[in-house]
Amino acid sequence: MTERYTLLNQGEDNEMEVFGYKTVRWRQALCIIGYIFSLGFLRVLFYWKPELDVWCQCIPCTLSKADVILLRTTDDRREFSKKKVIEIRRCTHGSKSDHQIVTRKNSIIDKSLMKPMGRIRYMEVQKIRYVWNTFEGKFQKIGVLEEELSCSDIHSKFGSGLTAEEQDIRQQVCGPNSIEVEIKPIWIIFMKEIFNPFYVFQVYSLAIWMSFGYFEYSGIILAMTILSIIATVYNLRVQSIKLHKMSISYNSIMVTVLRKNGELKEVESQSLVPGDVIILSENKRFLPCDAILINGGCTVNEGMLTGESTPVTKVPLPLIESPMPWKIQCGEDYKRHVLFCGTELIQTKAHGHDLVKAVVLQTGFNTTKGELVRAILYNKPMNVKLHREAMKFLLVLVFIALLGVAYTAAVYKKHGASVHEIVLMSFLMLTVAVNATLPASLTLGLLYGQTRLKKLGIFCISPQRIILAGQLNLVCFDKTGTLTEDSLDLHGVLPSNGTSFQQIHLFSSGNSMPWSPLLGAMASCHSLIMVDGKMQGDPLDLKMFEGTGWEFESHAAHRTQDGESISCTMVKPGSSAGEIPVEGIASLHQFPFSSALQRMSVITQITGETDLTVFMKGAPEMVTRFCKPETVPHNISNKLDYYTTQGFRVLGLAYRLLQKEGLPAIEHLERGFIETDLIFLGLLILENRLKPETKSVLQELRTAKIRNVMVTGDNLQTALNIGIHCGMIPKSSKIIIIEASEPQKDVPASMTWKTITENQENGHKESFQGVHTVMNDGWKPNTSQPEEFHFAIDGKSFQILLHHFYNMVPKVLLNGTIFARMTPKQKSSLVEEFRKLEYHVGMCGDGANDCGALKVANVGVSLSELEASVASPFTSKIPNIECVPMLIKEGRNTLVSSFSMFKFLSVLTMIALTSLAILFWKNTFLSNAQYLMQDGAIVIPVCLTASLNGPAPKLAPYRPPGQLLSPSLLLSVFLHFLLTLGLQTTAFVLLQAQPWYNESDVFSACLPLNHNAENITARVPTMTETYVATTTWFVTGMNLIIIEFVFSKGRPFRQRLYTNYLLIITIILQVAAFLFFLFADIELIYTTFEVVCIPFYWRAYILVMVLVHFLLSYAIEEGILENRNLWLLIKRLCNYQSKSQYRKLQRRLKMDTEWPPQNRTDFAIKSVSVVDSKIVVLKNASYQPPTESSRESLGQQKLI
Question: Domain Cation-transporting P-type ATPase N-terminal, which positions (predicted)?
Fold first, then answer.
């Protein structure tokens, strides 16, 4: 970093380079003069290229003195933008300029303050305000609470609120807490639209055409352009209004704020600033900001954020004396303390007589809701490579047009034309370089695709990603709620008596459970709430509680042994619970379930008892870690294997008693203190059934050669069983479980490969019953079938691989199918690693714990009732994975449609160039009516109807080409150009060989029916009334229709052509019209289109040439260019191999006779870690390589 350069949002998706510039007044004046003399073109150029604007008007300077900032994105686009630096001249409050909020060392405001003037400099980028940090020499985001604050800092410095002075200072710097999307005036939207380079090129083309008197054609194009702009402006205006309504809904809520003097004040939410303390009431409301809960508890609906409407319980930030920043202190699970903007507050729960309080964390567009709005406003282009290829292709067309310009100048100089005429004709040749309908045609294809998806219940906030869906070759699926049903069925409970398990209690028997701590855990260890008289919560908690037969009271009065009456959640035995010697259990405090921690705990008190009881529920392997070893049955692993391999979901339950005497207040008890020395109670066994659609959808994807991967937080054995039942792992495949261990004192990190198969005596693998047996038969994979084995791994082992065996990660991912016990962060890491192998990755989940993975994937689909959420770019109201093949089909359809349209318009440019070259050679050109017929009756209808084909009903076992500059597409354009050139040249040469051909006498070859020969021959022909122009018009018109038909590709990615009724009708009418014009002898046709009469046999010649051209075009397109078998043969003959990273790795591993490893343990000599996307090699300093004797004792174990 230098004083003139820094990075903004370093390491984030929206990272930008920042350059400082100072405005020079005399340069500004020169630019203004340039605007005037260039008739505004220089200003338009600066609008397109803001970097030129800055370079011309400013000089580089240090960022601390800059009044203009030039930003450049660090992605492949490298786009520039210009921003003004704004200065706040008075950010202190009256005489209190040295207030603690300003002078505190860690305050961003303090670091940004230019003392003693009391000024702060900032800029606004994509609705986010960045202040200049004078200490660190960089721009820093404002409107958020300082990330360096520890848990104790937040409680002590902000827990009692801000003073009015502090609040005022922060509001001046941070700005209002509002997510306002202004409704842009129509004239501004209109001006931005017409300054699009394509529209500017159209204005240039219209000017040239009008100078030639092409008023009719120019008028139609102008009308179409205006209609297109009006439609675009209307859509943008509607979107602007929708976003405005969506964003403004929570901008003026009245909230209660706690001031430092203890005063409670009602204020508008717009005045909230980071550090404010807001009081949360029982009334339902939407939160106007992101806030950290510091006191009390509450339940919220985060459907807007995750796409899942299950209530989420939030707990206060713990008061921990540690200098560690609060997010790091809380780990992955920090979100359980955060209330997000836009989420609905359902219920609050105060501790004792205290208020439910939260410290404002983020305001305005910094909030979660603001992120959603900004994602829509500033949608990041995903098809960067495709866009770059399109620009290269267009540049090639422009280059060809420039050659045409040179040719035109030479030809007209030969004709003896004036300089003015040569320039005009050259400019006319340039107008055909880029067809005016190109941007509209490609946009229409995306809009049609988006509309079709919307009808299916799949919503998209980024239409460009539809094309990405067409390239997917790997899809990751969450399990619960995605592959399987949301709801669970109770199977039974397996109590523990310490050293062994007791008889299983089956819920199907109808018998109620006797009282025990195990029943107490099932009745109270959950996060259920009562909303409008209906119990709501996690489906698992609901089923577990229903199985107890107990009743739920959300606001019961519970009297403690101290005589204090408190309001809390109470569970009591119901009429169907049998005889229970307990009056009820009060839930006093809760540590909610976390995917990262894989457990939840509650602190309860049984009515009438003094001591407290802690209950824990979670993954069995996690729960047993916190239990006394002597209370855990020795055969728990066998029991877990027995049930999980049958597909059951198994939870562990435990408890402990806490003597209340000497304990701090319940709300101040730390999780680490209560979750120790627990007594293991038993196992809760639930059945999670597959959704009916899962098997067929996965089979459809496998048939299409799209990999299926399961990424779940559930148990590995359960995930394996589900994977086999749903067909994700075929019956004939081998399964290798990878288990990794962290390095110990004298032993390095290790990874063990265990090959498993079904117990041959207990049935086939589909049932997957019995204990897994380790294969020792020396099995080797058949290298001709590289996917006949599948790896299964859990999150803990995956994390060890990332840190100590990073070189093995790509090899594992190549055949990894089951990834279990994965935390949300590990899911994101997994998707990123797949993308590094150059897979096109899709992710499908319910949105709850998959937000990170859904965003990181090329295409993320959230199963949600909402039309848009922060969770992913696609949301599906279809509550199962049927949406995935639907999206892929539409993606392929849209991709092929876009490429076909690009090909058509490219060949159209070639046709126009060759026809103009022939016409200019003979010093003639087409009439306005002829151009109208070509563009108005052929090109425009094609652009409107060609993309209306629906997707093919079946997924093909291969993907369409994803590159615009692919050999097949380029060869298609080139060959059709040669055919066009051949057709027009043949017609031109044969025409001149006809005995009646005469350039000076164009009326003597034949006469229209019922016309006077003397009147016609006496008339002076116009420049367009020539045999060459007439023949060229018929030939090029029919040529366009042929290309239109040939490029209207149907299967295997689109429905057949005849299903596109509008396009078929259009083609039939076009062919009929041109045949009518060709053979009809009607004076109106001759006078309207300015064509001359040609002999009937020559008309037949033209038709024969066109038919031959059609047969050749169709044969080349279908027999060569679309012949997949031929291209595969060419690839084999040329020894062409895919350059994708995963394909290269597959080829290498195919040659490795020792791959995959089986029934051995590998040790790491060096540990490789991934830190901030960089590979770091870590040596195990304490590790000594084993001696020869110890190596022999390792048997099949191997060193890496």
Answer: 141-214
**Alpha-helix residue ranges (DSSP H) falling in 858-939:** 883-921, 928-934
Contact between 283 and 256 under an 8 Å Cβ cutoff? The reply is no
For the chain, the straight-line distance linking the first and the last C-alpha, in angstroms and rounded, comes to 39
In DSSP terms, which residues pair with 617 in a beta bridge? 600, 653
Q: Amino acid letter at 858?
A: N
Instruction: Judge whether 345 and 298 are in contact, CB under 8 Å.
Output: yes
> What's the residue count for the chain?
1200
Distance separating alpha carbons of residues 382 and 587, to the nearest angstrom: 49
pLDDT, tens only, 878-936: 889 999 999 999 999 999 998 898 889 889 988 988 999 999 898 888 888 888 888 88
The separation between CA 1154 and the C-alpha centre of its own chain, rounded to angstroms, equals 38
CA separation for the pair 456, 451 (Å, rounded)? 9
Confidence of residue 117 (pLDDT cuts 50, 70, 90): low
pLDDT digits (tens, 9 = 90+) for 330-371: 876 788 889 988 888 888 887 767 788 999 999 988 888 888
Start-end of H helices in 295-357: 303-306, 326-330
Question: What phi-psi label fits residue 138: left (phi over 0), alpha (psi between -120 and 50 degrees) or beta?
Answer: beta
Which secondary structure element, helix H or strand E, spans residue 640, and what is its range?
helix 636-644
Dump strand ranges (E) for 249-384: 254-258, 264-268, 277-279, 285-286, 290-295, 297-301, 312-314, 338-339, 344-349, 357-362
Q: Which of 1036, 1021, 1040, 992 is nearest to 1086 (CA)?
A: 1021
* DSSP string for 29-66: HHHHHHHHHTTTHHHHHHHH-HHHHHHHHEEE--TTT-
Residues 6+ apart with CB under 8 A from 1175: 806, 1168, 1169
> Residue 1099 half-sphere exposure, CB side, CA atoms within 13 Å?
16
* Alpha carbons 474 and 819: distance in angstroms, whole number: 14
State the catalytic residues.
Answer: 478
Pick from 36, 33, 48, 116: which is nearest to 79 by CA?
48
pLDDT of 479-505, one tens digit each?
A: 888 888 877 788 899 999 888 898 888
Query: 542 falls in which pLDDT band (50, 70, 90)?
Result: confident
**Predicted local distance difference test score (pLDDT) of residue 1183:** 36
* Nearby residues of 719 by Cβ (< 8 Å), 6 or more positions away: 479, 710, 712, 792, 818, 819, 820
Give CA–CA dist 17/929, Å, rounded: 53
Residues contacting 615, CB < 8 A, separation 6+? 517, 520, 521, 524, 525, 601, 602, 604, 653, 654, 655
Q: Record the tokens describing residue 130, joined without a space.
A: 């960045």
Place of tokens 């791959």: 1155
| pLDDT band at residue 1009 under the 50/70/90 scheme | low
* Selection from 696, 691, 692, 718 nearest residue 708 by Cα: 696
